[in-house]
Each structure stands twice: as C-alpha cells, then as structure tokens.
Request: fold
Amino acid sequence: MVMLNGKLTRNTLLGLCGLLAVVTSALADVTARIDRPSVDLNESFVLELTVDTNIDMEPDLTVLDDKFYRGQLSQLSNTSIMNGQIRRSRTWTIALMAKSTGKQVIPAITVGNQKSQPISITINEPTNAPPGEADVFITSEVDRTEAYVQSQILYRFKVYRAVATRQEGRRDPVISGAEVLIERAGDERSYEAILNGKAYNVIERVLAIYPQASGEISISPARFEARVLRDGRITGRKVFESQSHTVKILPIPAPPADFPDAAWLPARDVQLSEEWSREPNEVAAGEPVTRKITISALGQIETQIPAIEPPVVEGMNVYTDKPDLTRFFEAEGIRGVRRDQYAMIGVRGGPAEIPRLEVPWWDIEMGEWRIASLPARIIEVDAPEAEAILPPPADPEYADLANNGSAEQPEAVPVPDGFWKRVSQLIAGVWLLTVVAWWWSSRETKRAPREPEPPPIYKQQAKFVKAARKAALANDKAGVRAAVIEWGRLQWPDDAPRSIGDFAKRVAAPLSEELLTLSASSYSSSADEWDGKVLAKALRSISVLIEDGEVATESPLPPLMPPGT
Reply:
C-alpha cells in the first residue's frame, strides 16, 4: 500500500509539473514592435512579435486583415544562458502594408492566453512617383527649407530598384556653405514599395544635419552606382542621382527676458524629469539621498544639451557625479538624453527647500521660447541624536559633563586574554593563503595547440584565380579547367559546376565566351590553335550572372574531358 501511494504521489507530481509548464507557456509575455513609426501608404514595414519562452502556439494574425495587407511570416527560436539561467524565446516577423492613410493602430495580437499591447503607426500619403517606368532611380528630401543654427535638418534619400543590381555603391551628398555637423539618424532600412502598380525594393538612409552658423547650405545630389541585371545580361556601371537642395540657416534669436543667460537649445520637444533613490520627504542628517535629473530633447544630440547646475540647498551638502549621455532614434530624428546625478546629505535638522528647476528651450516648430520645469520640493531633515553631536572624551567640556553626571560613561567591555594574539594569527594565515593563491595563479599553464583556422573563402578563391591565369598563359587547358572548377565549388557549394560549359553559364561575358571557346577547343581537331592569353585577361574579374537556384541541372557537354586534352 505504501508503494502504491508512492507511485500515485510521483505520478501526481509529474502531472502537476506538466500542467505548470503548460500554464507557464500560456502566460508568456508577448512583446510587439515595428521597425518604423511612420511610413508611406505604398511602403511595407516589419512587425515583430516576441514571447519570453519557446512555445508551440501560433499568434492570431487575422486581426490585422482589416487594415493591413500581410506578407510572408517567418519565425525564430532563441536559447541563451546567462548567469546559469537558461532563457528561451520565440520571435515571429511579418511584413505589413497599410490599406489606408492616417493614424492607424495595430491591434493587440493573441498568443496563447496573452496579448500584446496595441501599437500606433502613421501612414502618410505617397510622396514619390517613379520617373516614367524606370527600373532604378533615387530620390531625396529635406524636412525643412529654413532652420536655425544648431537645429536639426533631416535629410532622407531612397534608392528604388525594380531589378537586380550588382557591384553597388552609394555616396552621401556633399554639403557646402555654412559649417555643419552630420549624424546618422538611425540604421539604414530596407523595405518594399509599390509605385504605379510596380514593385520596388527600397533602401532608405536618413541623415541629421546641424548647421553651426547662419547663412545658407547647399546639399548636392546623393549618388547610387551599380550594374543592372536584365534578361540574364548585365549592363555596364551606371550612375543614378537624386535632387539637390538648398536650406536657409537663421541666426540665434535673443534669449527670453526672464532668462537673459539662457543656453541655446533648439528642439522639437523637451522633457524634464527627476528620480530619487528613495522617497525624499524625510531623511536623517548624515544619510545621503540621490537625485537624478533627466532632460531629453527631440531633434538635438546629447552633447548639445546644456548641463544642469546643481541646486544650492541650505542645510544640505550637494555632490555632483559624472553625467550620462545617450541618444535614441524616433520618426522625427534624434532624441538626445542627458542625465545628471547628485548626492545630497543633510547637515542639520529642519526643512530644506530644493528650488524650482527651469530650463529654457527654443521650439523650432512654433518659433518661440518655452520653459521646461520641475516644481520646488521641501525635504524634512531629521536632527542627529544628542549622543552623535557630543564632543570626544578628550574635550574638557565633555569631561565636565561626565563629571557632573549629565552624560553617562559607557562601561568598559572586558577583552578576553589572548584575543589580540588570535587575531594576529588569523591575519597572518589569511596573508599566507593570499601569497599561495597568487603564486598558483601566476604559474604558466600549458595550452593545447590550436589548429589554424582555414583561410576565408575569398582568399581561397583568389588562389584558384591566380592558378587559372597562370595555366592559361601557359596554354595549360587541364590546369585552367581544374582551377576554375575549384573556384566554382567554393562559390556554389550546394550546386558546384561539373564542367567548363556549366561554369560558363553562370558568369558574365567576356569570361563566359572565353570559357566556351576553351571547352569547344578541347573537342576540336585544331586544339593546338587555342590561345590562353585572352582567357587570362578575362580572368582578371569574375562576375556571377545568375543565382544558384537558376543554374541548369544538366550540361550539354560531358562532365569530364578525356585525360591529357
């Protein structure tokens, strides 16, 4: 009966553990985020859903169908170990495109028994149209044609491609005129867009420009260079340019009358907040309390935010710490953040008033001065206990107080015999252990020899190209064939070419034509007339023509040539 009860108990515990795992998975937190808070109507954006555990449940994405077109869904499971703790997560990624303009809300998405938070996104009217039916073009824009000194100008350029390109190169614009500071406003983005019913892949880059003097700046066109792949053939290198722009830079206006010494801070929005290490309504004298003041400015970098001077508080000493400077990227540009931290210690009892904090800033949207502020605060400092402020025993006044009975003398605590001897022995033992540990850690340890890592693919391919050119100059057909086939095995490891003819189909002219000539000469009666110098010249550059999946599976030529040809 005892064994039966034990088995039942074990089975019950296993069942409870399984039920707990199911409940934990069902209650996993769901986090939703989008890659851009503002897009055009014809542009796609990415929605990412993450749960903090690896579960088998799928998100319910049908709630998106009313307002958005859904693209392909992909998922990724991740396992990480941190401080001995195993953490698992699962992420779904889906491309979306809005059906209408305006302020749209991505609804809460259900995974198991949990839901994500709704997300707002702004859908703008499409601003770009392709020039005619161009397959490749580039556009650029600035968010304002007039700006103040040290205020942010957002420059955005986009590369549209409806066809595949090779050997791409992009060049940022050149800015002349007044001196400027240029910062990247976030990472480069890639997404899809549909213009006049034509699908384009878009690469977008945003720059934040901060003019340092009044006058005018000129922004030259941004450039995109590439070779275009059309109908299985690749063109020569082409250059595409965007528009040029001119921006007028206005001087710094006079400071407000109430703040004649105000620092110049132009921004779209400024937020001021404070944090305390603990509730500061009441503190004891001699105990520190930490105050952290955060000022964030949208449209300004963190190094341009003025320092917050520490307050002067009667009855408290204030000690400053090193500021923390960070930045974030939003749809309206860079948001700089500065955090100043102060340690405040009460030195006497009574109320201590922290004065009101005010920071003037220039609203670049409204064109006027505004004030960000924190209210004043009263802190009650508890007076120290009487014993804490008595003078030391050596002071004559203290001795008089003791003799008059105003203060009680503490009784001497007896110290056991041999106490200090044992303390000294303990310290000596710890010191000796430290020396032994240092000697042990400083010994040279034998390390197992590491195997050399194989060279990168491009270095291996360069070796075979060099061997092929050397063989071609020597009219060594077999050597050319072997080196080229080895290069192809590195380029297409899952579908390596089996012959020179197969390889020639995958690269562009003139190399493809010379390889076909070599292949044909191997079967011709006039094989000795082949000249490898032209092939050696063509091998100076190898341009892959088609993707791996498009390569034919069979070659019209035999896979191997007779030995010695």
Remarks:
- The first helix runs from residue 2 to 26.
- The longest strand covers residues 68-82.
- The chain has a mean pLDDT of 78.
